[in-house]
Amino acid sequence: MLTSKQRAYLKSISNKLNPVFQIGKSGVSASQISQIDDYLRVHEIMKIRVLDNSLYSAKEASSEIAETIEADVVQVIGSIGILYKKNQKEPVIKLP
Fold it and tell me: Mean pLDDT across the chain, nearest whole number?
């Protein structure tokens, strides 16, 4: 669980990031979830975009992915969700 200070710090980091994954009309698949987990293991933070033709909202998709891979949803704005998962072995981001 993130504190408000940590969440604000992660939001500031994510401002310069572009969405890495897109969730389309087929929804969230197991292969996408494993790719997202692998990406977060290396980078710790990422943006996902939920396309307009998707059956999911950005909040629903972000929550489902975060629950499955035990990550945190930092923020959801419009069709963009920001996910964070700390790398226990080699942390990249040092939270306040």
Answer: 94
Note the pTM of the prediction, 2 decimals: 0.93
Cα distances (Å, whole numbers) of residue 88 to 18, 36, 49, 63, 93: 24, 17, 26, 21, 11
Collapsing DSSP to helix, strand or coil, 2 comes out as coil
Residue ranges and CATH numbers for the domains of the chain are 4-84 (3.30.110.60)
29's tokens: 């698949």
Those residues with Cβ within 8 angstroms of residue 92's Cβ, 6 or more apart along the chain or in another chain: 42, 43, 44
Joined tokens for residue 37: 């987990």
End-to-end CA separation in angstroms for the chain:
14
**What mean pLDDT do residues 30-41 have?**
95
Strand, helix or coil for residue 23 = strand
Q: Taking a C-beta distance cutoff of 8 angstroms, is the pair 33, 68 a contact?
A: yes
